[in-house]
Design a protein that fits this description.
With 284 residues, this protein is of the alpha+beta class. It has seven helices and 18 strands. Strands 1, 2, 3, 4, 7, 10, 11, 12 and 13 form a nine-stranded mixed beta sheet that branches. It starts with a strand and ends with a strand.
């Protein structure tokens, strides 16, 4: 059994909890997720099974989309409502100021990862240090916020639709927006609505998977990529299977491709480098 399941992770479960549940349902040990969602968050969590686990890192580095509730006037140590309250404020800016502040975070920005995160420093996860009351200096990371749409503003709450690059912490984004407004802020709720080509609209619950079985909802690994398809034959096919680059007409420098064999079997993801189709990730 090889493929990907677009799972809708519920609130209260870790991403690893979902992996364990899929292992139990499928009876397969080789299962992995493609990007952690906090226990208090819900939404799209693509799960790779069998050979599809080779693609997990490619999905992890894909762009994401979230719906988040920004709670203004509250600052916490975890940057969400589950943490210890550090500061409060009743001086909530008006809608115009909130809109202006939010727009200032669109584009390439620097973000300091939160202490309550799974990032490792000298072999230790930051959240382990944070729980021990230890805070260390973190280097800012460049991320990209492609767009932020404000869905609603009601009093001290703003609902945001955020499209962003890998490595973005929405908790930190909410915290930073609150800081820029001078009243503080944190994340009150989070739904991941999209990861790569997978959306919440066609995600399946764990209960549905248990009722229907895995195979009914298993997506072939090649369908997770929206790259152009190319096929190889004869000597070129043998070269590709052996991991060698091949010449091919009508391919664009720097572009990625889904490569198929003469029998239609999905072989790999390759990239055009110096005019040759060069292996990135094999699935044969």
């Amino acid at each position: 059994m090889n493929g990907i399941i677009n799972v809708y992770k519920p609130v209260g479960m870790t991403s690893h909890d979902v992996v364990y549940r899929i292992r139990r349902i499928s009876g397969i040990k080789k299962v992995g997720h493609t990007g952690t969602l906090d226990p208090d968050a819900q939404g799209v969590l693509p799960i790779c099974i069998g050979k599809a686990t080779r693609a997990a890192d490619m999905l992890t580095f894909s762009d994401k989309r979230y719906t988040a509730v920004l709670r203004l006037g509250i600052t916490t140590d975890t940057q969400d409502m589950g943490g210890k309250i550090l500061n409060t404020s009743t001086d909530i800016p008006n809608e115009e100021k909130i809109l202006l502040a939010v727009r200032g975070f669109v584009g390439k920005i620097k973000q300091i990862p939160p202490m309550y995160s799974a990032i490792k420093v000298k072999g230790k996860k930051l959240y382990t240090l944070a729980r021990a009351g230890i805070e260390i200096e973190r280097e800012p990371r460049e991320i990209t916020i492609y767009e932020i749409n404000i869905l609603s503003i009601e009093g001290d709450r703003a609902e945001l639709d955020v499209k962003c690059s890998k490595g973005t912490y929405i908790r930190t984004l909410c915290h930073d927006i609150g800081q820029s407004l001078g009243c503080g802020g944190c994340m009150e709720g989070l739904v991941r609505t999209q990861s790569s080509v997978f959306t919440a609209d066609n995600a399946v619950t764990l209960e549905k998977l248990e009722a229907d079985g895995i195979e009914k909802h298993l997506i072939p690994v090649d369908e997770m990529f929206d790259y152009e398809k190319v096929s190889v034959f004869g000597d070129d096919e043998r070269k590709v299977v052996n991991g060698n680059a091949v010449n091919m007409d009508s391919i664009q420098e720097g572009a990625c491709y889904r490569v198929y064999g003469s029998d239609g079997r999905f072989l790999c993801i390759s990239k055009c480098l110096k005019g040759k189709l060069t292996l990135l990730k094999s699935f044969y």
